[in-house]
Write a structure and sequence with these properties.
Blueprint lengths: L2 H86 L4 H8 L15
């Protein structure tokens, strides 16, 4: 075989090797790009989920505070009215109750008190 055939064969092998290496690098780059996109997508999903979780927790805590404030107000009213009711049945409680009531009749009108 001629010497030039061996030379062409070696250069052809080098060319095929470099083409194979380039093709392999392109595939590796493509796979790396796909994995990078997947990682970014999962990261965004995690961030959005944390934001939504934080917002819903904030709304829930706000509602719980409103319920607690309402409960404390109603508890205060209940205690106040309970004390007033208990005072009604104490000695001379009826007289105190009558004095505490608002007078609807204006001052210029004659009042008649039945006893």
């Amino acid at each position: 075989m001629p010497k030039s055939f061996y030379k062409n064969s070696i250069s052809h092998k080098n060319y095929l090797g470099s083409v194979f290496i380039r093709r392999r690098q392109k595939q590796d780059n493509f796979v790396s790009l796909i994995f990078l996109i997947i990682k970014i997508s999962f990261s965004l999903l995690a961030i959005i989920s944390l934001i939504k979780l934080g917002y819903s927790s904030k709304v829930r805590l706000t509602r719980l505070r409103e319920i607690e404030d309402s409960f404390l107000y109603e508890k205060y009213r209940f205690n106040f009215l309970t004390d007033k009711f208990d005072d009604l049945f104490s000695s001379e409680g009826e007289q105190r109750f009558m004095k505490d009531q608002d007078q609807i009749i204006s001052r210029d009108i004659i009042r008649v008190i039945w006893r």
